[in-house]
Design goal:
Helix content is about 60%, strand content about 0%. The chain is an all-alpha fold and about 120 residues long. The N and C termini lie far apart (about 105 Å). The chain is rod-shaped and about 110 Å long. The model has no long low-confidence stretch (mean pLDDT about 85). Among the domains are: about 45 residues; about 40 residues.
């Protein structure tokens, strides 16, 4: 037994059926149209809603899956500032190490360093 497949309708077909349904004015004409096309009232209702929202104007299929999360406009700025802060902290640590280097060398060599303006 073959597995049943879901019917898919093109945008052109939906628009054609909607035009025909809009042209129906007598009682029973819409029912006859739906029977002839093998459709349900729910199809017609959904297609009218799509037309109202403007989804039938474009030929693109509706994207499936979860909706993308809205990004905070400041998130990129915060990330850039955090990166800059990390870079500046690393630079400050290197500068402090360079300032302490002469003191460490003088301690290792046993030399007494005098600061500017200091006298014995």
């Amino acid at each position: 037994m073959a597995k049943p497949t879901r019917r898919r309708f093109t945008v052109e077909y939906k628009v054609k059926v909607l035009k025909e349904a809009d042209a129906c004015h007598k009682p029973g004409e819409i029912g006859a149209l739906l029977r002839r096309e093998g459709l349900y009232v729910s199809n017609l209702k959904a297609w009218r809603e799509q037309r109202r929202k403007g989804e039938l104007a474009g030929l693109a299929q509706k994207k499936r899956g979860p909706a993308p999360k809205a990004t905070n406009p400041l998130a990129a700025r915060v990330a850039a500032l955090e990166k800059e802060t990390a870079r500046l902290n690393a630079r400050a640590a290197r500068a402090e190490a360079l300032v302490e280097l002469p003191q460490k060398v003088s301690t290792m060599l046993g030399i007494d360093l005098k600061r500017n303006g200091e006298q014995d």
